[in-house]
Structure formats: C-alpha cells, structure tokens
Amino acid sequence: MKKLMLGNEAFARGAYEAGVTVATAYPGTPSTEITENVAKYDEIYAEWSPNEKVALEVAIGASVAGARTLCCMKHVGLNVAADPLFTAAYTGINGGLVVIVADDPGMHSSQNEQDSRLYARGAHLPMLEPSGSMEAKEYVKLAFEMSERFDTPVLVRSNTRLSHSQGIVTLNIRRDIALKPYEKDAAKYVMMPGMAKKRHVILEKRMNDIKEYADTLDINRAEYHDTKIGVITSGVVYNYVKEAIPDASVLNLGMIYPLPEQKIRAFAAKVGKLYIVEELEPFFEDMIKAMGIEVTGKAIFTVQGEYSVNMIAEKIGGKKAEIINAGALPQRPPVMCPGCPHRAVYYMLKKLGIAATGDIGCYTLGAMPPLSGIDTCVCMGASIGMAMGMEKARGKDFSRKLVAVIGDSTFFHSGITGLLDMVYNGATSTVLILDNATTGMTGHQDHPATGKNLKGDIAYAIDIPALVKSLGVKHVRVVDPFDLKALEKVLREETAREELSVVIAKRPCALLDRKKISPPYTITDKCKSCGVCLKLGCPAIEKTQNGMMIDETLCTGCGLCKDVCAFSAIEKAGE
Amino acid sequence: MGDILIVGVGGQGTLLASRVLGNLALSLGYDVKLSEVHGMAQRGGSVVTHVRFGEKVYAPVIDEGGADIILAFEKLEALRWIGRLKKNGRMFVNTQEIPPMPVITGAEKYPANIEQRISEAVPGAVFVDALTLAKEAGNAKALNTVLIGVLAKHMDFDKKAFLDAIRETVPEKLLDVNMAAFEKGYNS
Lengths: 575, 188
Hints:
Mean pLDDT of chain A: 96
Shape of chain B: globular
Strand content of chain A: 15-25%
Structural class of chain B: alpha/beta
CATH class of the largest domain in chain A: Alpha Beta
Order of helices and strands of chain B: EHEEEHEHHEHHHH
Number of helices of chain B: 8
Number of strands of chain B: 6
Strand order of the largest sheet of chain A: 3-2-4-5-7-6-12
CATH topology of the largest domain in chain A: Rossmann fold
Shape of chain A: globular
Helix content of chain A: 25-40%
Largest sheet of chain B: 6 strands, mixed
Oligomer: heterodimer
Mean pLDDT of chain B: 93
Largest interface: A-B, 59 and 55 residues
Largest sheet of chain A: 7 strands, mixed
Helix content of chain B: 25-40%
CATH architecture of chain B: 3-Layer(aba) Sandwich
CATH superfamily of chain B: Pyruvate-ferredoxin oxidoreductase, PFOR, domain III
Low-confidence stretches of chain A: none
CATH class of chain B: Alpha Beta
Number of domains of chain B: 1
C-alpha cells in the first residue's frame, strides 16, 4: 500500500515495522510528530518523558531489559540527553536502541542550528541519514538491525525539511520481535572505571568493524553520470543536488558516520572536481580531507542556514535564477494568539517596569514588540539559573525588578533543579511559572501536570504549588493572569519581598478548548483612539482609518483589552 | 510537472489545502512531495507550504523562481512570496488583508496597491474574495476549499479528481460545507 507520509510519520512507521515495543521522547520541533505517531500503535508503549535525558535513560533501560526501543528528540534535546548517550555507547544494548535526532538548519523553531553529526563522532556511535519519507521508514528498520548486530545504540539524523515534508511511502507489515532475555551483566552495564576501561576497548573495536561494514552498505550509493563533477552529500541536500546539477555524479551517503572510506576513495578517483555539499558544519569535508583527498566545500558554501537548489546551481553550476523582486515589505513574525494568557503577564510586567529572564516556549514570543517582555532566552530552564546569576552578580536590589519567566512543561523539563539552587543558595528573586496546562509551542502535548499521558490514559497530575513548596519555597502564590488587579497585587508584593517566591499564573492555553471561547468584543464610539489596547500586541485588534477595530473572527473574548481600556469603550459584541 | 506554492498566515488552513492537492496528485499516479510548516503554524506568522508533483520529484521545497502556481490566502503574503514564481507562472490571490504585528502597532503601514503591483509583475493574476465566498458557503474556515475550487477551474485535471481528493482529506462532518465552498470557488 502506498501512502503520502510526513517524514516523522514514516519514522514512526519504521519503528512499528521494526517491532519496537517501547518509545520515549520529549516534544521538540521538528521531531514531535514521530512520537505522536508512534503512540497511535497499540503494540508500542510510548511516553512523553519530562525531558530528553530521562527519555533516553528510560529507553536505555528498556533496551537493556530486552526490548527494541526508540527515543526521539530535537537537536538541542540531544545536548540534554548527551550524558546517558556517551556512556550507552560503552555499555552497548540488549534489545535494539535507536535515537532519532532532528536538526533545524535555518532555525525555523530553535535557538541555535547546531549539527548533531558531531555527537556521532564524539560519542562513537553510527549515524544514518535518510533523504525522504520512504528512506526514513527503511533506515529506522536498518538502524535496529545494525544496533543488534553491533551491540550499539544507533543514531538516525533528521532535519526540519525531512521531518516536515510528505513523500510517498510503501507500507510493510510489522515484524514481531520477542523480548531478548535479560541477564545481569555487571561488566557490560555497570560503568565504573574498571569495567568502563574494558568497554572502551570494545567500543573502539566496534567502531572499526562498523567502518568496514559502512563500505558494504548499499545506502551509501554512488550515481555516476558526467564524471567531470562529483558531489558527496547526504539527506535532504541530496535532493537539491540532483535538481541543481542533474548531470553531475553523486555519492549519496546514507550512513554519515563512520564514513565508507573505500567507497569515497573510489568515487574521488573516478570524478574530476570533487565537491562536498553539506548543510552546517564541514563534517564530511574535514574527515575526507583527512583521508588526503582534495575537495571543495565550505570554501564556497556557507555553514549557516538551509541550502537550496538555486544555491547549488549557482555555486557549482554557475547558473543564476531569474527572480521577481517584491521589494521591502512589513515582516509578519509569529505572535502570541488572540486570547493567550501570557499576554496579560507581559502587559503587567511592562506596566510595573519588571524585567524578565525568559525561557523556551510560546511565551518566548513575548520578547517581540510591543510587549518586549523578556531580556534573555538561552535554553530549556535557563530563565531560573540566569535570574539567580543576575542576583548574585548585581545584588538583591536588582532582583526587586527582575523575575524568571518559565512555562509549566519547561519547568518540569529543567526548571526544578534551577529552583532547587535558588532555595539552597539563598536567592530572593521571584520565579513566574506560566501554567497554561499544556506544552504549547510544539502543538499541545501532555506533561506531568495535565492528568493525561501520551497514550491518552488518565495519569497522576502533579500539583505544581505543592511541588514548589516541597522544594523549600516559602512564598507560593497562584493567580489568574486575566484577573489583572490580582496579578498586579501579587507581582508587586512578591518582587518587593526580599525572599524567594514563586508565582504561578494559571490559565489554560487559548487553543486548548475552543468551545469555551466567549463571544467576541467590539469597540464602541466611546473610543478615543488612545492606543492602549494596541500595546497588548493582540492580532485581533487593529488601527484602521476609522479608529480601532476588533476582528470578530479572531477575537476569543478574553476581555483583556476591555480591562486595559480607560474609557470603557470595549464591549461584548451584540450587547 | 507541477510546483504549487501555497502561502498565507498561520491558522488560515494552508496545510489542509496542500494535503488535498497532494492526495489529488497521488491519485493521478504522480510522484509527490509536500513541505509543511509546523510548530509556529498556529501562531499567526507568515506560512508557506510546497506541493510538488511529476514523474520524479527530488526536492521537497520550491526554490525562488521555481513555482508554476502560487495560491495565496492573503494579499501581503502573495506579494511577499512572488519571488518564488517562475517566469510566466500563474497566481491566484485571496484579496483578504490580515495586518501583521508591525502594522498593528503602527510601526509600519500595510502596503497599498498590492493587487496592482502583483498584476504588473504577473499579468493575468486572478483575485478573488474567498473569505466572502466561504462565509456564503456557511463557514469562514472553508476559505481553503474555496481557493482550491478557484485553482481547480484553472488546472487541467478533472473536477471529479479534486472532489475525490477533498473527500479523502477533509473530516466527514465538515464535508458538506467544504463541497459547497469548492463550488463557490470553482464558479467564481
């Protein structure tokens, strides 16, 4: 059966067909839909773990216990999971263990564009990279076979274009794989120095074996045409090369670490000028140059952003595309949705002149004008550690006008340990947890406080105020951000207090239950066009030639604009 | 070979439109690739989805100067993405205006004369008030099927193939309104 499938859906199908029984992940664009699709198969236990480190640890445990196991994350998630990853390379596996990591060149939805291939080299793990949906499915199956054949976790690399593109996939049936027997084996699974030294020797030998194996794999595929120009490439970029310079010979690497050295040497010997076309770091280029082969790569190609057909056609083929120029236009950056509870919080912080260290989620959009509400955004959980660092550097007075702003899911991911540091090392700051009852930006995944798990079953819902109190925070307040008066009072009191406090602004995401939306608001002739409502940065309010206007198809009736209007000029439509 | 770029504002339903066209091309036996925007898609930003079909499709995205057709859900977005259109390419534009945040805050103005600027660059560009037609069909959200109807009228495929693709892609309970919306677009 043939089906159009998103790359991420195809990865999930591959795991299903490979007989996976356990899958773990933390949501992160562009990797999220892999696990959402895996969860639809009844044969697979799938979970949202609180973060990628836990996800990988659960996955390693399941593998050691004998199950074929999948773990998925975005590129920066692999930083979080790097600790278990590097040592799992030493222990090896029992049931096959595959980690899919999705890069984001061009930063469609990320804070950096790091190249996860460097982890394969750093941790001494093999890595595969498909170039389309069909390969995504097949490479996952191959990765499981490799994992068990060589006793190693296997990395599969995706990126935004692969994960979020659809292509035609032929479906196969699932292979049911029995659990492998579990046997206690301290020399293999207890990584103390004495044991780990022996495992390091095994790891080195294993990588040499895999290097030889790489040369036998037909997913490392040379396509010979005109041999004047040869290109070594991989993944989605292979497709761009094929369209940009269809006459060139191409070596498409399906296995991107370790490299198939003999195939590369044979290819280099047959072609005239050899190019390496790879997004981000000169990963292939450095290794191929180290083989003593002359190549052209980053001398003409950038390490930044995504590549394209035109870019390659121009750099290698010398052809420039004809393009209609639209001229300068107003940008359309993403914005917080109409009815978003975060908007009220940023409005109030601005009104009170309170600065904020920010974090990763929808609320990062509060950095944009007109709210301009956060000063920093580095990584998951950093808001809390950075607020702590700012206080220790600049003193307690500085913290009277500073809060850390973090979402509920991000708090579970890696905010709790930062808060522990604040308690332990005597911070006096305020941490503001924006609890919208979901993981918003990645598309509404459940988390430890939503009361539901990834399989849709009822789960224990963590009580955030109780958790925070149990960590030793004495002052914990919960407030509805749409109750502006209460929000103002709580924020004033807690930031003024020279003691650590946590304020939980609790209100579900506006997109969670659209049925609950109240009737929209409208602007009456009492409006003086003062523009206060525009300072909310709500996409439903607009200044027209005839004064302010609310787009009733966008307005969710949250009433925030009504509350900030000094002239009572905003009323429910139809009243 | 068909390279169709669908552009609009996050939340307008561009994704569904691209999936209808993808299923259409698949049913006609073509190789197909679609490229989508996730994550930020519901957050009101500029969004673009790519639909490519033909004997063999490699790249999932349409580069500058590469689109045979641009189907634009919003006027400013039509102009923003016009550089992706091939010479002699065609454009179908919903005349709706959605102000972006820099316009809302007054930092910038919504560009004037967009229709004129597009028509000068792309003679024969088609403009349609798809939002009004969608409302007439019974649901403003069916804007995307109105625009597919507009496109269907100008493409060389059977109308029935389009209707089948809509049936396959759209949720059952929304089928009637989407069929009505398609007809509104097709007959506009």
